[in-house]
Every structure is written in structure tokens, then in C-alpha cells.
Amino acid sequence: MINTMECAMDAQNLISISLMKIHNSRTQRGGIKLHKNLLVSYVLRNARQVYIKEKYAEIYRMQQYEEVMTVCNEIQELNPLDLDADDRGEEEHERASCCGEGTSVCGSACQRSAAQPAAHCRTASVLPGCSPLEDGGKEPEPSYYRSCCMETSPVSHCDQFPTNSTHCNKTTVLDLDTHIVTTVENGYLHQDCCCDASQCGQSAQSPAKKRKVEFGCCMSDAEEVSDFTAVRKRAKREDCTYSNLDYTDTSNISNLISIFGSGFSGLLSRQADLEHICSKQAPASLRAWTRAIVAF
Amino acid sequence: MKCFSRYLPYLFRPPSTILSSTCHTEADIISTVEFNSSGELLATGDKGGRVVVFQREQESKSQPQRRGEYNVYSTFQSHEPEFDYLKSLEIEEKINKIKWLPQQNAAYFLLSTNDKTVKLWKISERDKRPEGYNLKDEDGRIRDPSTITSLRVPVLQPMDLMVEATARRVFSNAHTYHINSISVNSDLQTFISTDDLRVNLWNLEITDRSFNIVDIKPANMEDLTEVITSAEFHPQQCHTFAYSSSKGSIRLCDMRQAALCDRHCKYFEEPEDPSTRSFFSEIISSISDVKFSHNGRYLMTRDYLTVKVWDLQMENRPLETYQVHDYLRGKLCSLYENDCIFDKFECVWNGSDSVIMTGSYNNFFRMFDRNTKRDVTLEASRENSKPRAILKPRKVCVGGKRRKDEISVDSLDFSKKILHTTWHPHENIIAVAATNNLYIFQDKVN
């Protein structure tokens, strides 16, 4: 495994440098040096592997965060049966602060009244300036989808299953990514269909309990929550900043990648096993690079 | 260890018309150095396609201190720039390798090669010339036969020594890719020339055909994963040769096995250490030079950071590994950016196979004594190489407090690199090429 200290940023630089070397070799005196270009293509492959892994890790982190927020919101909306009014207010406040600053898709959900059905979207990344729904008091559409992603990767969104009653005691959310159906019923969570056997088929109580412990931001301890939300806020800010600065670079690199090799074509679509992708695509991409070199 | 720090170095500066140290052009950069089999002659090739041959002075009782100095013996233009019209590619005139043929008569023969063409040169002396021709006068003008009234026999008269180099054979049109090495067989009749994907076998007398004995070109070039980086014949066994690859492996082949030696009889490779994996693992494991020991029992390989000695009887790991400049491991990224990571360092054995030598940056070169396991770093520079001065060992400071005479890694000059070195076959005399300067160091004479 490549040293993890070499992060995606270094990988981007290496990709750019390597492509420049290959390009410059076309005009070098004496013709293209096969040996040197082969070695450069190896660096390119290695850098690309790290770059893709980092991107997927980032996507996965974002997805996890979105999941957390989804469950938080779901629990909040069903809370009249379980939580005190004080706690509810506190949680809403915390959630608002954690999702606020106009940078989160979930900001809209935070503003929503508890009775409204929840719909959350999962995005690959978040752009700054992606403003939440402005009026917290307004009723959102029954089902809405917001995409703030800047990459071409397909974005899943959660469908909303019908619940029309404002005092619904059952909400079902289908995650198209993982095909997990989450049902919240009378304050308890169920996962009707999921990969993780430990979560499936359990009694209503235990997954709810699990969720309670895991998603502590929605729960009681204010200090703990504020730390957690502060961390989340920081992470989101960093993500947004990173995304903002590197938007152009990433899209440029993506463009270059698509120009230079069809070996990259399968990589931006989501697959379950990233390692499998990389191992399968490596020879294909190397071929693509060699093709590019030979074409020169 | 016979450490060169205890012995006399002296600096040899070739005539300034050929190699100028003050303001040199790229054409003056030395690209190969090679002693002949007796050590009497030393040949250098440069990027401008020229070959300069030095000859050792005979020992003189009147001037014992000038024992064994090397002086320019012959200079000639071996290769010229060419243009491949079919591919619209310029063919560089840079001399990639020179190999001497063992001396069989009064003349000297060497093979020199650029990227595409190998040439056999004959270097011979002329110290007499015939005089007294009948049909032409001393100026060379043809005489009118009707004016000739008597005949005379031309006689050889002494003249100033003239060394002339003539191209006796040109071996061309056999390589699609860039030639990286040549090697003369111990049978003295054949030689091999190697490019990135193929090894061709030639007869020294026949220029219009060669036999391809190794071909690693894949059917689909997109499947290419490695190239050949160097090849050499075994010093005694005329049927055995070895070639190294960009993946860090060496293959030993026996020409008696089959006409096409694609199947190796021995395969030398050390498994990669996964803990040191980086973006540049493939680059630094690529072998830049392979050399048989004089006794034919060992192989030496050079990759970017190490020199390895292999026992021909043990394929799974090297016998010895020497770190040349491991402090560069943390700088691979910047070395990649400035292309230094692609530098191809050579390595050499001494005559008794007890010491190995290779170059590094900052005009440093390193020697490793295989018996005592001691090593020394020396520098080829004008300041440190006064005549009769002793070469002082150098040290690179890798961290912590730098001592007075140490040099820190960040202060190394990566534009000053010693890629080419050669060792006299019998004596402790070394020639080191530092960009456009040639340094010759030798033992102190007792």
C-alpha cells in the first residue's frame, strides 16, 4: 500500500507533473524514450490509485455524515412520543447550529417542523453558497431533492415513501446507495433491508438504541453534543473549503483523465469494492497510457 | 581496505578544444568511459558523438613522478546527428557505450554506439610513410608518365607519429528502439547490441544481418510492463549472457538452449519490501547497469539507491546490498520533478572483484570493499584534487547536527552527477566522468 502520508493533493500534483512529462517527451530530441515514459506511466498509475481512493473516502465520509443527519432528523420528527419539549428545543438548536451556516443541504431539514416528512439527499460533496431552505417555518414539498454535488458521480437520493399525516407514526426512507430501507415507527427504527446482518432482523428497540448511542448529537448531553457538532462543523467547513479551492483542479484532472484513457471510464461510477476496481483497472489503464504514448 | 584516500590522485584535464571545464556545451558532456583490456588505453565518448582515446605514458626513469599519466592518443567523430525521415525523428549522436575488443595486433579496435547504430573503429599508428613514388611526386600530384625516365623503389621514411581512426564496420538498421548497451563476446567473433525490447547478436565481420535472440515486445504494446535496460556477455562462457529489466530483475540466458532466448535459465529478483512502497517504487527499482565480475561468479546491478551483488547460484535474493545514497529516499518527489530520478548510474568492479564503485550526486562517488564491508565517499572536484593531494573522504549529513566537514542533503548539487566510471583491469586506477571533466585517480606509487 502506498504510504498514506502522500495524500490526494500530492497525487494530483504528481498526475499533473507526469502528464506534462509525457507531453514534453513528444518534442524531446532523439524521440520518445520508451523506458522513461513507461516509468512515468507507473507513477501516474500509482498517483491515480491514491487520488481515486481519497476521493472515494471523501465521498464515503460525506455519505456517513448524511446518514447521521438523516437519522437525527427522523428521530427528531418522531420525538413527541419520546422526548421532552425542552430536549426537543435543545436538539433542534444543536442541529440547526450543526447544519447551519448556509453550507449544508441538511440545513433545510433542520429548519423543517417536526411534523413534516423528511427527505434528505446524499451528495458527493457540498458547495459553499448552497443555501438551505430559507424559511424554516415553511412547509417543504412532500418530496424534494437537492443536489449540490460538483462531480459527475451519480448522486443518490432518498425517495420518500408516502406519509401524509402530520402526526405520522411511520416514516420509511430508502437509501438507493446501500439499498437500506429505514423505517421509523413509533419512535423506533427498523432497517428492513440492509447488508449488515447485525442490524437486520433485530427487534425494534435495539437498532434504535444503537442509533441513540451512535448519533450522540441528537441526544442529551449538551457538552458532548457541542463538541461533536463543533467537530462536524469544522469538518464540513474544511470539506467545503477544500472542495471550493480544488474544484477547478479536480474537474481539469477528470477531463485530462478522460482524454487520456478509457481505462478511467469505470472508475467514477460507484462500485462496491474500490480495491477490486484498482486492481482490475490498473493493467487496463497502463494499457491506455501505453496506447497514448505509442500514439505520440 | 586500499582506500583511495591514502593515495595520490591527480587531475587530468583533456585538451581544452575537446573538453572545456569553464564554459562547456552540452556536446562536451561525457557519456561513457571505458578502459581497454590491458588498461593501456582509456576511451571516452560524449554527447557530441566524439570519441577521445587516452594512452598511458610509459614509465620513464627520468621522470618517475609522471608514471602512468594518460595523454590524448586519438580523437575522432564517431557518430553524427541523423534524421529518420520515415518517423520524422532526430537520432542523437550521443555515444551511449564504448566497448574495446581485446588487442590482437598492433591496431586497437573498439565498438561505439549511439541510439541506433554500432560502429567498429580501428585505431592505428602510423610513424612511417613511403617516399619516392614514381607516378606521383612528393606533393601528391600525378606526374606525366612520359617524363619518367627511371624507376625507383619507394622506401619507408620515419615521420611524426600519427594516430588515425577509421570506421571498419557499420552495424545499422537493426534497432527500432534506443540502444542502451553493447557487449563483446569472449569468443571475440560476436557481440550483442541491446535496445529497450530486443537483444541482437552480430558477427563482427558481417554488417548486413544480425540475429535477434531476445524479444520482449508484447503482441499488444498496451500490455508493455517492462523494458530491457542493459545486457552483458559472461566474461568466460561465450554462450551465456545476462540482461536486466526496468522491473528490477535479471535474466541469465544460454544461447545453446534455443535460437530465441526468451526463456531464461536463471531469474534473479528480490521481492519488494511492501513497507517501503511509494509512488516511485517502480522507478527506483529499475536496474540501470549490470556487470559480471571478472571471475564470472557474480553479477552486480545498480538501481537508483543501491548496488547489489548477486551470486549466480542464488536467484531469490542478492548476496550483498550496498546503500549508495539512501538519504535520497525522502526526496524522491523533488527528484522526480527535476528528472534526476531517471539518472542511470553505472557500476564497476575492480580487477580482483573485491571492491565495487559507483557514482552519486554532488560529484561524489562511492567505493565498497566487499571483504571488510567498509565504504568510502570521495569527491571529484578541482578544489579537492590538487596534484599529489590525497582524496579526503566525504560525508553526507542526514540529520541532526552537521559537523564541520560534512555536507547536508539539502546542499547537494544534483546537477553534478557521476554516472560513468571505470576501473583499470589490473591496477588501482580509476577514471571518473563528472559532466564534462574526466578525473583519473591512481594509487600512490611506493
Automatic annotation (TrEMBL), chain A:
Name of the featured protein: Immediate early response gene 5-like protein
Organism: Parambassis ranga (Indian glassy fish)
Family statement drawn from the similarity comment of this UniProt entry: Belongs to the IER family.
Family matches, as InterPro entries: IER
PANTHER family: IMMEDIATE EARLY RESPONSE GENE (PTHR15895)
Pfam families: IER
UniProtKB/TrEMBL annotation, chain B:
GN (gene name): ppp2r2ba
Top-rank taxon: Eukaryota
Family of this protein: Belongs to the phosphatase 2A regulatory subunit B family.
Quaternary assembly: PP2A consists of a common heterodimeric core enzyme, composed of a 36 kDa catalytic subunit (subunit C) and a 65 kDa constant regulatory subunit (PR65 or subunit A), that associates with a variety of regulatory subunits.
Name of the protein: Serine/threonine-protein phosphatase 2A 55 kDa regulatory subunit B
Any one annotated GO CC term: protein phosphatase type 2A complex
Coiled-coil portions: none
PANTHER family: PROTEIN PHOSPHATASE PP2A REGULATORY SUBUNIT B
Record field: transmembrane: none
Gene Ontology MF annotations: protein phosphatase regulator activity
